[in-house]
Design brief:
This protein folds into three domains: about 150 residues, GTP1/OBG domain (Spo0b-associated Gtp-binding Protein, Chain: A, Distorted Sandwich); about 180 residues, Rossmann fold, CATH 3.40.50.300; about 80 residues, GTP-binding protein OBG, C-terminal domain (GMP Synthetase, Chain A, domain 3, 2-Layer Sandwich). About 25% of the residues lie in helices and about 20% in strands. The strands form four sheets. The protein has a six-stranded mixed beta sheet, sandwiched between helices. The chain has a five-stranded mixed beta sheet with strand order 3-1-8-5-6. The chain has a four-stranded mixed beta sheet with strand order 15-16-17-18. Monomer. GO terms for molecular function: GTP binding; GTPase activity; magnesium ion binding.
């Protein structure tokens, strides 16, 4: 199947890149076993961007290849190395491209060189544990996951940006008119529907330069799908004025200039949105004697309707100069209206604060609870549920946001099922207010006090040391000759050399105390 050279409507699938995961790493070097967290952040995923390119005149590239994907962000690394960002994909589109969602909602109308629209936003990279560290969480043992990039189905529709639009029946001479008043060279032949795509021509009239577009021939019922015109009526929506090109030399039965005009106007009305455009009537082919007579007969009646009428001949170029300057006059007035400065007084008011950041509602089916909101759902996507500390961090974030308080306020009980989000990434958990997440973390959920708290062995050793010093100062009279002999290996928080010296000191102390007791026994004996 041949691929057309001109395409003005396509459906494309765009997918942005995923953000890279953050890295959970601890700095290590000689004599510094716990140098602190140094995991870098993940890189952001690349975005898909649509941008107006003056060198692009058709959407045919996206007809051939309708799937476009950006690259993912790289994962963070240790030693504070952030992952690289994914590369953006910039798609060039013609000026006048209208971007719509799959449901028909218009998202953007790109007019002007360089105008762009982010079709799919790349996912944010996850934070590494270095970025998550704080005064209360000095050594996070987790990092955040990168977010998925957007995936969307978009409809791109080209509406030619032209100042003047030529409309009329097939073979009325629209392409010949464009070729006569500009340097455009559209296909011209003596059979209907010669023009299969809109043709643009640049016209110069005095100091005014403007563009003219001819629309493939309209016929009765074009707005309902007959012929080719229904596919191209959109191209006249941006025009400052419409020029009816009427064939005064047609020999088809039932056709005359007045009926042709009424038929085309009915199709334009059915299409809608063109009622305010100025109209000019060009009575073409007056180089044919009978056509000139017909043009003279209908000119007065057309002018009575308030229309500006110009008899022309694209073959002999008669009347073309007057028509060109009439079109230029409308274009100049239209541009002046658009460029007129807006004198409306601008009033800046404080923006109204948005509603709550989340919503909580009870599910009627099983009595569970549903939490919805951008923040909670995004936090869920960032959480690695295989890591208990990361899960606790999520619980802390939800608690600070007020989710737990709202659930209690609405009557949630411990053990109730709570679901966050209602999409494919939704999670369900049992409601457990103020319960620590993770058996080792006994303080606030998600925080790690392992660097602040003493190990049990160190606590036991400190207790025995205080008892020993109390004995040495005479506060206790118990026998401490065997002090230190029953310590467990995990109670000695010292190097092997220090442990050896401590054992020697304990043995020396025991021998000294034995000699003192032996001397006391001899004196008393």
């Amino acid at each position: 199947m041949a691929i057309p050279s001109f395409v003005d409507r396509v459906t494309v699938q765009v997918a942005a890149g995923r953000g890279g995961n953050g890295c959970a790493s601890v700095h290590r070097e000689k004599f510094k076993p716990l140098g602190g967290p140094d995991g870098g952040n993940g890189g952001d995923g690349g975005s898909v961007i649509l941008r107006v390119d003056p060198d692009v005149t058709t959407l045919v590239d996206y007809h051939r290849s309708s799937h476009r994907t950006a690259t993912n962000g790289a994962q963070g690394k240790g030693d504070h190395q952030a992952g690289s960002n994914g590369g953006d994909v910039v798609l060039g589109v013609p000026e006048g491209t209208v971007i719509s969602a799959a449901n028909g909602e218009v998202l953007a109308d790109l007019v002007g060189p360089g105008a762009e629209f982010i079709a799919a936003q790349g996912g944010k990279g996850g934070l590494g544990n270095a970025a998550l560290a704080s005064s209360s969480r000095r050594a996070p043992g987790f990092a955040l996951l990168g977010e998925d990039g957007e995936e969307r189905t978009l409809v791109l529709e080209l509406k030619v940006v032209a100042d003047i639009g030529l409309v009329g029946f097939p073979s009325a001479g629209k392409s010949s008119l464009v070729a006569s008043i500009s340097r455009a060279r559209p296909k011209i032949a003596d059979y209907p529907f010669t023009t299969l795509i809109p043709n643009l021509g640049v016209v110069i009239a005095g100091d005014t330069t403007f563009t003219v577009a001819d629309v493939p021939g309209l016929i009765e019922g074009a707005s309902e799908g007959r012929g080719l015109g229904h596919d191209f009526l959109r191209h006249v929506e941006r025009c400052a004025a419409l020029v009816h090109v009427i064939d005064c030399a047609t020999y088809e039965p039932g056709r005359d200039p007045l009926s042709d005009l009424d038929t085309i106007e009915a199709e334009l009305k059915a299409h809608g949105g063109l009622e305010d455009r100025p109209r000019i009537v060009a009575l073409n082919k007056i180089d044919v004697p009978d056509a000139r007579e017909i043009a003279e007969m209908v000119q007065a009646e057309l002018e009575q309707r308030g229309l500006r009428v110009y008899p022309i001949s694209t073959a002999s170029h008669e009347g073309l100069e007057a028509l060109k300057y009439a079109m230029a006059d409308i274009v100049v007035r239209r541009r002046a209206e658009q460029e007129k400065p807006d004198t409306t007084r601008i009033v800046i008011r404080p923006q109204v604060q948005g509603g709550p950041e989340f919503k909580v509602k009870q599910l009627p089916e099983d009595g569970g609870w549903l939490v919805q909101g951008d923040k909670p759902e995004r936090w869920v996507r960032q959480t690695d549920f295989a890591n208990a500390e990361a899960t606790g961090y999520l619980a802390d974030r939800l608690n600070r946001l007020g989710v737990e308080e709202q659930l209690i306020k609405l009557g949630a009980q411990a053990g109730d099922a709570v679901m966050i989000g209602d999409g494919p990434n939704a999670i369900v958990f049992d409601f457990a207010p103020d319960v620590a997440a993770g058996a080792e973390i006994l303080a606030r959920r998600g925080e790690d006090h392992r660097l602040e708290e003493d190990r049990p062995a160190a606590q036991r050793r400190r207790t025995k040391d205080s008892e020993y010093h109390a004995y040495r100062s005479g506060e206790r009279a118990e026998d401490w000759a065997e002090h230190g002999q029953d310590w467990d290996a995990d109670e000695v928080d010292m190097s092997p050399a220090e442990a050896k010296r401590a054992a020697e000191a304990a043995a020396k102390l025991a021998r000294k105390e034995a000699r003192e007791r032996a001397a006391e026994n001899t004196e008393n004996g």
